[in-house]
Design brief:
It is built from 9 helices and 11 strands. The protein has about 240 residues and is α/β, with parallel strands linked by helices. The two termini are about 15 Å apart.
């Protein structure tokens, strides 16, 4: 290992949480190529350089991006329509993040309390889960469910509420974007940050409690018979 290179060699540890809240794009799936094509198409329609939009759009709700470039299109009817087209037009350009399928399948099979909390709309979330055939959560929070997007903590606060968790109960948030990490921390959650889409330093500066390369380092172990807490094994974490 080169001097100064990050060391993802943390030993396996098991932690317990009242529930699990997962971001979607960059955390469960990598739809980078699809999103780039989407904003290239939309940027031309808006008369805005797509690269300018893409520089700040990841982890941000489309409606918030459109408020900057074309407020007339910043409405849920339009955003739901255009985002619903993405999996249909660019479905072949998305892949699952390593470890995502097995983690979701294990959580779902155990009927553990888990939810997806995404900056995407419901048509986008539904479309990607269908295209990639990933487990569908009983609970979720999508862009149109909250007044303000990440880093505002409202989405993760709502996620906890939809799992039936109280404010004092600790949930685990799994995120790839600095804005999402900050939202999770502000909501009183512990946060695992992935380095799938952003630089390690950005995730560290956002305040992630643990940093891993992808979801192969996050494994569902089981549920405590007495407390019902979800037991998660974290391995190959960044050694700070």
């Amino acid at each position: 290992m080169a001097p100064g290179a990050p060391s993802f060699t943390g030993p396996a540890e098991i932690h317990s949480f009242a529930g699990i809240l997962l971001d979607m794009d960059g955390t469960l799936i990598d739809s980078t190529e699809a999103i780039v094509k989407h904003w290239q198409k939309l940027g031309k329609e808006l008369g805005v350089d797509p690269q300018v939009i893409l520089a700040t759009s990841h982890g941000r709700r489309s409606i918030d991006t459109l408020k900057v470039y074309d407020p007339a299109k910043a409405n849920w009817e339009y955003v739901n329509y255009v985002e619903g087209l993405i999996p249909k037009e660019y479905g072949a350009d998305a892949v699952e993040i390593p470890g995502a399928r097995s983690l979701l399948a294990a959580l779902d099979a155990a009927e553990a309390p888990w939810a997806i909390v995404t900056s995407g709309t419901r048509p986008l979330m539904d479309g990607w889960l269908e295209v990639l055939k990933l487990a569908y959560p009983k609970h979720n929070v999508v862009a149109e469910d909250v007044a303000n997007g990440k880093p505002d903590p409202a989405c993760y606060q709502l996620g906890k509420a939809r799992l039936g968790l109280g404010a004092a109960e600790t949930a685990l948030v799994i995120e790839d974007a600095p804005a999402g990490v900050r939202a999770g921390k502000a909501a009183g959650c512990m946060v695992v940050g992935l380095t799938t889409t952003h630089r390690l330093e950005q995730i560290r500066e956002a305040g992630a409690d643990w940093i891993v390369e992808d979801l192969r380092s996050v494994r569902f172990v089981g549920r405590d018979a007495a407390t019902g807490l979800v037991q998660i094994e974290l391995c190959n974490t960044l050694v700070m």
